[in-house]
Amino acid sequence: MQPTATEPTYAIPASFRRMENLHIVFWLLKDVSWCMLWKPLGLSMVVPTLAIAVIIFWRTRHLKSELAHNLAILLWITANSYWMISEFFHFDNVLVWRGVTGKHLSLLPFTAGLLVLAYYYLVQKPREAQQEQVATL
Q1: What DSSP string runs through 123-137?
Q2: Which tops the pLDDT comparison, 53 or 16?
Q3: pLDDT of residue 1
């Protein structure tokens, strides 16, 4: 679908795009290492994957849509990394509280990410659309 003349364009600097692409490489290396049980590589990929997610989140903080999505991604990677670590160090099935295991604790950042997106789509985005509609009257 081609953008129209009135549709806003979203562009990012090439250096940001390169960082996002590198982020994907680190993320995939982390997850492949997890799948293959390559503990040293998987653990070493947590730091750069999270670090770049924080940088991307910070750089896009002025755009509410990007802020929400990049915060959700940061929380997702946090949850995913914790889950991987819980399996690598064998506390994924250790009971923490009333049937909740170490692995289940990763649901906290996963849920936080879902709540961030729910807020954006149910509250923030409709509010922006309403403000845009009022501005065009």
Answers
A1: IIHHHHHHHHHHHT-
A2: 53
A3: 59
Structure confidence at residue 4 as a pLDDT band (50, 70, 90):
low
Closest to 71 in 3D by CA, of 112, 34, 99: 112
CB atoms within 10 A of CB 104: 16
What residues does 95 pair with on adjacent strands? 101
Q: What is the pLDDT of residues 21-61, one digit of tens each?
A: 999 999 999 999 999 999 999 999 999 999 999 999 999 89
Give the count of beta carbons closer than 10 Å to the beta carbon of residue 78. Answer: 20
DSSP output for 10-36: ----HHHHHHHHHHHHHHHHHHHHHHH
**Domain locations in the chain as residue ranges:** 14-135
> CA-CA distance, 86 to 94, in Å (whole number)?
9
Residue 91 structure tokens: 């506390």
- Quote the pLDDT of residue 14: 85
Closest CA to 45 of 93, 111, 36: 36
Q: Which residues contact 27 (CB under 8 A, 6 or more apart)?
A: 45, 49, 77
Provide the token pair at 33: 């290492």
